[in-house]
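Review form for a predicted model. The reviewer records the input and the model, then writes brief findings.
Reviewer: anonymous (R2)
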Amino acid sequence: MLWMNDPKNLKANYWQIIDATRDLSAGAATLLNQLYAPDCVMSVCAPLDRAQGDALVGHAAIYEGLFAPLLASFSNLQRRTEILMQGQFKGGDWVASYGWLIGKFESDFFGITPTHRHHWLRFGWFERIEDGHVVESIVILDVPRLMIECGVWPVRPQLGENWSPAPVAQDGLQLKLSDPIASEKSLKLVEAMIAGLMSYDGKSLKSMGMTRFWTPQFHWYGPGGIGSARGHQDYEQTHQQPFLTAFPDRIGGNHRCRIGDGAFVASSGWPSINATHMGDGWLGIPATNKRITMRVMDFWRREGDFLSENWVFIDMIDLLQQFGIDVFAGLQADANLRGKS
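Model under review:
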Protein backbone atom coordinates (compact mmCIF):
# COMPACT_ATOMS: atom_id res chain seq x y z
CA MET A 1 0.00 0.00 0.00
CA LEU A 2 1.09 3.54 -0.70
CA TRP A 3 -0.15 5.06 2.57
CA MET A 4 2.46 5.29 5.30
CA ASN A 5 1.11 8.47 6.96
CA ASP A 6 -2.24 10.26 7.01
CA PRO A 7 -4.27 8.64 4.20
CA LYS A 8 -5.76 12.05 3.37
CA ASN A 9 -2.31 13.49 2.68
CA LEU A 10 -1.74 12.00 -0.75
CA LYS A 11 1.28 14.11 -1.61
CA ALA A 12 3.25 13.30 1.56
CA ASN A 13 2.82 9.57 1.01
CA TYR A 14 3.44 9.90 -2.72
CA TRP A 15 6.56 11.94 -2.01
CA GLN A 16 8.02 9.25 0.24
CA ILE A 17 8.02 6.79 -2.63
CA ILE A 18 9.16 9.06 -5.48
CA ASP A 19 11.89 10.54 -3.26
CA ALA A 20 13.13 7.09 -2.23
CA THR A 21 13.27 6.06 -5.90
CA ARG A 22 14.48 9.37 -7.36
CA ASP A 23 17.45 7.49 -8.85
CA LEU A 24 15.40 5.95 -11.63
CA SER A 25 18.36 4.07 -13.09
CA ALA A 26 18.27 1.89 -9.99
CA GLY A 27 14.73 2.42 -8.73
CA ALA A 28 12.31 2.41 -11.69
CA ALA A 29 11.19 -1.18 -11.12
CA THR A 30 10.73 -0.53 -7.39
CA LEU A 31 8.74 2.60 -8.17
CA LEU A 32 6.41 0.64 -10.43
CA ASN A 33 5.88 -2.16 -7.93
CA GLN A 34 5.30 0.09 -4.93
CA LEU A 35 3.30 2.91 -6.49
CA TYR A 36 1.33 1.58 -9.45
CA ALA A 37 -1.65 -0.77 -9.49
CA PRO A 38 -1.07 -3.89 -11.63
CA ASP A 39 -3.67 -2.69 -14.15
CA CYS A 40 -2.73 1.00 -14.12
CA VAL A 41 -3.43 2.84 -17.38
CA MET A 42 -0.81 5.43 -18.38
CA SER A 43 -1.25 7.96 -21.20
CA VAL A 44 2.12 9.10 -22.57
CA CYS A 45 3.22 11.77 -25.02
CA ALA A 46 4.79 11.28 -28.43
CA PRO A 47 7.17 9.72 -29.34
CA LEU A 48 6.84 7.39 -26.34
CA ASP A 49 3.33 6.49 -27.51
CA ARG A 50 4.60 4.99 -30.76
CA ALA A 51 5.29 1.41 -29.75
CA GLN A 52 2.10 0.51 -27.90
CA GLY A 53 -0.23 3.45 -28.41
CA ASP A 54 -0.71 6.29 -25.98
CA ALA A 55 -2.29 3.98 -23.36
CA LEU A 56 0.21 1.77 -21.55
CA VAL A 57 -1.64 -0.78 -19.43
CA GLY A 58 0.07 -2.62 -16.59
CA HIS A 59 3.58 -2.69 -15.16
CA ALA A 60 5.28 -4.37 -18.11
CA ALA A 61 3.81 -1.99 -20.70
CA ILE A 62 4.58 1.08 -18.57
CA TYR A 63 8.15 -0.03 -18.03
CA GLU A 64 8.74 -0.86 -21.70
CA GLY A 65 6.88 2.17 -23.03
CA LEU A 66 8.16 4.89 -20.69
CA PHE A 67 11.06 3.86 -18.51
CA ALA A 68 13.01 1.50 -20.80
CA PRO A 69 13.65 4.05 -23.60
CA LEU A 70 14.75 6.67 -21.07
CA LEU A 71 17.01 4.32 -19.12
CA ALA A 72 18.57 2.99 -22.32
CA SER A 73 19.51 6.51 -23.46
CA PHE A 74 20.28 8.39 -20.23
CA SER A 75 22.66 7.10 -17.58
CA ASN A 76 22.25 7.98 -13.90
CA LEU A 77 18.70 9.15 -14.58
CA GLN A 78 17.26 11.08 -11.65
CA ARG A 79 13.82 12.56 -11.02
CA ARG A 80 13.84 16.09 -9.58
CA THR A 81 10.38 17.28 -8.49
CA GLU A 82 9.77 21.02 -8.05
CA ILE A 83 5.97 21.16 -7.72
CA LEU A 84 3.81 18.54 -6.01
CA MET A 85 0.07 18.94 -5.53
CA GLN A 86 -3.03 17.01 -4.61
CA GLY A 87 -6.77 17.46 -4.97
CA GLN A 88 -10.06 15.92 -6.00
CA PHE A 89 -11.60 16.06 -9.47
CA LYS A 90 -14.95 14.46 -10.31
CA GLY A 91 -14.72 12.28 -7.23
CA GLY A 92 -11.19 11.04 -7.94
CA ASP A 93 -8.09 11.67 -5.83
CA TRP A 94 -5.24 13.14 -7.88
CA VAL A 95 -1.59 14.02 -7.44
CA ALA A 96 0.13 16.31 -9.97
CA SER A 97 3.85 17.03 -10.21
CA TYR A 98 6.23 19.13 -12.27
CA GLY A 99 9.97 18.78 -12.54
CA TRP A 100 12.88 17.31 -14.46
CA LEU A 101 14.41 13.99 -15.43
CA ILE A 102 18.17 14.53 -15.36
CA GLY A 103 20.72 12.20 -16.92
CA LYS A 104 23.75 11.90 -19.16
CA PHE A 105 22.66 11.42 -22.77
CA GLU A 106 24.72 8.38 -23.80
CA SER A 107 22.70 6.47 -26.44
CA ASP A 108 20.35 7.23 -29.32
CA PHE A 109 16.88 8.42 -28.23
CA PHE A 110 14.31 8.00 -31.03
CA GLY A 111 16.96 8.98 -33.57
CA ILE A 112 18.40 11.90 -31.58
CA THR A 113 22.18 11.52 -31.52
CA PRO A 114 23.59 11.42 -27.97
CA THR A 115 25.64 14.40 -26.84
CA HIS A 116 27.39 12.60 -23.95
CA ARG A 117 26.40 15.55 -21.82
CA HIS A 118 23.85 15.95 -19.04
CA HIS A 119 20.39 17.16 -20.03
CA TRP A 120 17.34 18.23 -18.03
CA LEU A 121 14.16 16.77 -19.52
CA ARG A 122 11.10 18.66 -18.28
CA PHE A 123 8.09 16.60 -17.16
CA GLY A 124 4.45 17.07 -16.19
CA TRP A 125 2.86 14.11 -14.37
CA PHE A 126 -0.76 13.60 -13.26
CA GLU A 127 -1.82 10.48 -11.35
CA ARG A 128 -5.15 9.29 -9.94
CA ILE A 129 -4.97 7.19 -6.80
CA GLU A 130 -7.31 4.50 -5.52
CA ASP A 131 -6.74 2.30 -2.47
CA GLY A 132 -3.19 3.54 -2.10
CA HIS A 133 -2.01 2.91 -5.67
CA VAL A 134 -1.92 4.84 -8.94
CA VAL A 135 -4.62 3.57 -11.30
CA GLU A 136 -4.47 6.31 -13.95
CA SER A 137 -1.43 8.30 -15.08
CA ILE A 138 -0.78 11.04 -17.65
CA VAL A 139 2.78 12.00 -18.63
CA ILE A 140 4.23 14.64 -20.96
CA LEU A 141 7.98 14.94 -21.41
CA ASP A 142 9.30 18.05 -23.16
CA VAL A 143 11.19 16.16 -25.86
CA PRO A 144 11.20 19.18 -28.24
CA ARG A 145 13.25 21.05 -25.65
CA LEU A 146 15.79 18.22 -25.72
CA MET A 147 15.86 18.35 -29.52
CA ILE A 148 16.51 22.10 -29.41
CA GLU A 149 19.40 21.57 -26.98
CA CYS A 150 20.81 18.93 -29.33
CA GLY A 151 20.42 21.17 -32.40
CA VAL A 152 18.00 18.88 -34.25
CA TRP A 153 14.61 20.61 -33.85
CA PRO A 154 13.45 20.82 -37.51
CA VAL A 155 10.88 23.61 -37.07
CA ARG A 156 11.54 27.36 -36.93
CA PRO A 157 13.54 28.54 -33.87
CA GLN A 158 11.20 29.27 -30.98
CA LEU A 159 10.26 32.87 -30.25
CA GLY A 160 10.59 32.57 -26.48
CA GLU A 161 13.49 31.85 -24.18
CA ASN A 162 14.49 28.31 -23.18
CA TRP A 163 14.03 28.60 -19.41
CA SER A 164 11.55 27.09 -16.97
CA PRO A 165 12.69 27.43 -13.33
CA ALA A 166 11.15 26.32 -10.06
CA PRO A 167 8.52 28.58 -8.44
CA VAL A 168 9.97 31.97 -7.56
CA ALA A 169 9.13 31.51 -3.86
CA GLN A 170 10.53 27.96 -3.87
CA ASP A 171 7.20 26.82 -2.42
CA GLY A 172 6.28 24.05 -4.83
CA LEU A 173 6.94 21.21 -2.37
CA GLN A 174 4.48 21.84 0.44
CA LEU A 175 3.94 18.38 1.93
CA LYS A 176 1.38 19.47 4.51
CA LEU A 177 -2.31 19.72 3.67
CA SER A 178 -3.19 23.18 2.33
CA ASP A 179 -5.83 25.60 3.53
CA PRO A 180 -8.94 24.62 1.52
CA ILE A 181 -10.01 28.27 1.30
CA ALA A 182 -6.70 29.21 -0.34
CA SER A 183 -6.96 26.22 -2.67
CA GLU A 184 -10.46 27.18 -3.75
CA LYS A 185 -9.38 30.80 -4.31
CA SER A 186 -6.59 29.66 -6.62
CA LEU A 187 -8.86 27.32 -8.55
CA LYS A 188 -11.58 29.94 -9.02
CA LEU A 189 -9.02 32.48 -10.25
CA VAL A 190 -7.73 30.07 -12.89
CA GLU A 191 -11.24 29.17 -14.01
CA ALA A 192 -12.14 32.87 -14.31
CA MET A 193 -8.97 33.46 -16.33
CA ILE A 194 -9.82 30.57 -18.68
CA ALA A 195 -13.32 31.98 -19.13
CA GLY A 196 -11.63 35.24 -20.11
CA LEU A 197 -9.55 33.43 -22.72
CA MET A 198 -12.72 32.02 -24.23
CA SER A 199 -14.17 35.54 -24.63
CA TYR A 200 -11.72 36.48 -27.40
CA ASP A 201 -13.58 38.52 -30.03
CA GLY A 202 -11.26 37.50 -32.85
CA LYS A 203 -9.88 41.02 -33.19
CA SER A 204 -8.24 42.37 -30.05
CA LEU A 205 -6.27 40.51 -27.39
CA LYS A 206 -7.57 43.07 -24.91
CA SER A 207 -11.07 41.62 -25.33
CA MET A 208 -9.99 38.75 -23.06
CA GLY A 209 -9.12 41.09 -20.19
CA MET A 210 -6.03 39.20 -19.09
CA THR A 211 -4.75 42.08 -16.97
CA ARG A 212 -7.55 41.21 -14.52
CA PHE A 213 -5.91 37.89 -13.75
CA TRP A 214 -2.13 38.17 -14.08
CA THR A 215 0.57 40.18 -12.35
CA PRO A 216 2.16 42.75 -14.72
CA GLN A 217 5.44 40.81 -14.99
CA PHE A 218 4.10 37.26 -14.78
CA HIS A 219 6.25 34.37 -15.97
CA TRP A 220 4.91 32.03 -18.66
CA TYR A 221 7.05 28.92 -19.10
CA GLY A 222 6.08 27.41 -22.44
CA PRO A 223 7.00 24.11 -24.06
CA GLY A 224 9.98 23.52 -26.29
CA GLY A 225 9.20 24.95 -29.72
CA ILE A 226 7.39 27.97 -28.25
CA GLY A 227 9.61 29.00 -25.34
CA SER A 228 9.00 31.19 -22.31
CA ALA A 229 7.95 34.80 -21.83
CA ARG A 230 7.64 37.45 -19.13
CA GLY A 231 4.88 40.03 -18.85
CA HIS A 232 1.88 40.72 -21.05
CA GLN A 233 3.62 42.19 -24.09
CA ASP A 234 6.29 39.50 -24.29
CA TYR A 235 3.69 36.76 -23.80
CA GLU A 236 1.40 38.18 -26.47
CA GLN A 237 4.23 38.40 -29.01
CA THR A 238 5.83 35.08 -28.13
CA HIS A 239 2.74 32.91 -27.87
CA GLN A 240 -0.75 34.34 -27.61
CA GLN A 241 -1.08 36.28 -30.87
CA PRO A 242 0.61 33.64 -33.10
CA PHE A 243 -1.43 30.90 -31.40
CA LEU A 244 -4.79 32.64 -31.81
CA THR A 245 -3.98 33.50 -35.42
CA ALA A 246 -3.32 29.82 -36.10
CA PHE A 247 -6.24 28.42 -34.08
CA PRO A 248 -8.98 31.09 -33.91
CA ASP A 249 -11.76 28.55 -33.27
CA ARG A 250 -10.04 26.66 -30.46
CA ILE A 251 -12.32 25.08 -27.87
CA GLY A 252 -11.21 23.70 -24.51
CA GLY A 253 -12.64 20.85 -22.48
CA ASN A 254 -12.28 17.10 -21.94
CA HIS A 255 -10.28 17.65 -18.77
CA ARG A 256 -8.93 14.58 -17.05
CA CYS A 257 -7.94 16.57 -13.97
CA ARG A 258 -8.13 20.12 -12.60
CA ILE A 259 -7.17 20.71 -8.97
CA GLY A 260 -6.21 23.54 -6.63
CA ASP A 261 -3.74 23.12 -3.77
CA GLY A 262 -2.84 26.22 -1.77
CA ALA A 263 -1.35 28.77 -4.17
CA PHE A 264 -1.11 26.24 -7.01
CA VAL A 265 -3.50 24.91 -9.65
CA ALA A 266 -2.93 22.07 -12.12
CA SER A 267 -5.00 20.97 -15.10
CA SER A 268 -4.67 18.39 -17.86
CA GLY A 269 -6.74 17.14 -20.76
CA TRP A 270 -6.09 14.32 -23.23
CA PRO A 271 -6.84 16.12 -25.44
CA SER A 272 -8.12 19.34 -23.91
CA ILE A 273 -8.13 21.54 -27.03
CA ASN A 274 -9.92 21.01 -30.33
CA ALA A 275 -9.27 23.48 -33.15
CA THR A 276 -8.75 24.05 -36.86
CA HIS A 277 -5.27 25.08 -38.04
CA MET A 278 -6.55 28.07 -40.03
CA GLY A 279 -3.83 30.72 -39.80
CA ASP A 280 -0.26 31.00 -41.10
CA GLY A 281 2.89 31.57 -39.12
CA TRP A 282 2.65 29.63 -35.85
CA LEU A 283 6.06 27.89 -35.55
CA GLY A 284 6.64 29.24 -39.05
CA ILE A 285 4.16 26.72 -40.49
CA PRO A 286 1.57 27.65 -43.15
CA ALA A 287 -2.06 26.88 -42.33
CA THR A 288 -2.98 23.26 -43.06
CA ASN A 289 -6.74 23.75 -42.49
CA LYS A 290 -6.74 20.45 -40.62
CA ARG A 291 -8.78 19.69 -37.54
CA ILE A 292 -6.41 19.01 -34.67
CA THR A 293 -6.39 18.20 -30.97
CA MET A 294 -3.85 19.12 -28.30
CA ARG A 295 -2.73 17.18 -25.28
CA VAL A 296 -2.10 19.86 -22.69
CA MET A 297 -0.95 20.33 -19.09
CA ASP A 298 -0.79 23.53 -17.06
CA PHE A 299 0.54 24.38 -13.63
CA TRP A 300 -0.21 27.86 -12.23
CA ARG A 301 0.94 29.72 -9.13
CA ARG A 302 -1.16 32.45 -7.52
CA GLU A 303 0.37 35.43 -5.73
CA GLY A 304 -2.26 37.30 -3.75
CA ASP A 305 -5.17 38.03 -6.07
CA PHE A 306 -3.29 37.39 -9.33
CA LEU A 307 -1.56 34.58 -11.19
CA SER A 308 2.19 35.06 -11.28
CA GLU A 309 3.58 31.92 -12.95
CA ASN A 310 2.40 29.32 -15.46
CA TRP A 311 4.24 26.15 -16.50
CA VAL A 312 2.77 24.86 -19.78
CA PHE A 313 3.07 21.54 -21.59
CA ILE A 314 1.72 20.77 -25.06
CA ASP A 315 2.48 17.47 -26.76
CA MET A 316 4.07 19.33 -29.65
CA ILE A 317 5.29 16.21 -31.43
CA ASP A 318 1.80 14.73 -31.51
CA LEU A 319 0.39 18.07 -32.71
CA LEU A 320 2.93 18.38 -35.52
CA GLN A 321 2.16 14.82 -36.59
CA GLN A 322 -1.43 15.96 -37.11
CA PHE A 323 -0.09 18.69 -39.43
CA GLY A 324 1.71 15.96 -41.38
CA ILE A 325 5.14 16.80 -39.95
CA ASP A 326 7.28 13.97 -38.53
CA VAL A 327 10.03 15.68 -36.55
CA PHE A 328 12.01 12.42 -36.40
CA ALA A 329 11.98 11.60 -40.13
CA GLY A 330 15.22 13.41 -40.92
CA LEU A 331 16.89 12.01 -37.82
CA GLN A 332 16.15 8.45 -38.90
CA ALA A 333 17.57 9.15 -42.36
CA ASP A 334 20.74 10.54 -40.78
CA ALA A 335 20.99 7.50 -38.50
CA ASN A 336 20.70 5.18 -41.51
CA LEU A 337 23.50 7.06 -43.25
CA ARG A 338 25.70 6.84 -40.16
CA GLY A 339 25.04 3.12 -40.03
CA LYS A 340 26.26 2.68 -43.61
CA SER A 341 29.43 4.74 -43.15
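Findings: The mean pLDDT is 94.
Further findings: The two ends are 52 Å apart (CA to CA).
Recommendation: see findings above.
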